[in-house]
Specification:
alpha+beta; globular
């Protein structure tokens, strides 16, 4: 089965990877927070969300407090999740 999102996702992965400025988690978290606001580590995201789907660089997640389903972006290294967007409908 063809993945109609593959080209878009590959471009987004490249975009995210080329903007990483530091391998230091504290520095990189600070940079991402300045751009996206709330940022989660792997441990933090698993506390706040139930991850129900994955297609890099996105995960589908359900907020454990509000039960709102949405998407998060993530970068590989250092691994952080960010830019939560609730799904409509």
């Amino acid at each position: 089965m063809a993945d109609s999102t593959e080209m878009f996702r590959r471009a987004k992965i490249a975009e995210i990877n080329c903007t990483v400025e530091s391998n230091d988690p504290d520095e990189e978290r600070s940079r991402l927070e300045n751009i996206h606001g709330k940022v989660w580590s792997t441990i933090e995201v698993s506390k706040d969300f139930e991850i129900v789907g994955f297609m890099a660089p996105y995960v589908v997640a359900i907020d454990r407090k509000t039960n709102v389903k949405g998407s998060l972006e993530f970068q590989h290294s250092p691994r952080f999740y960010f830019n939560f967007r609730p799904h409509k409908g």
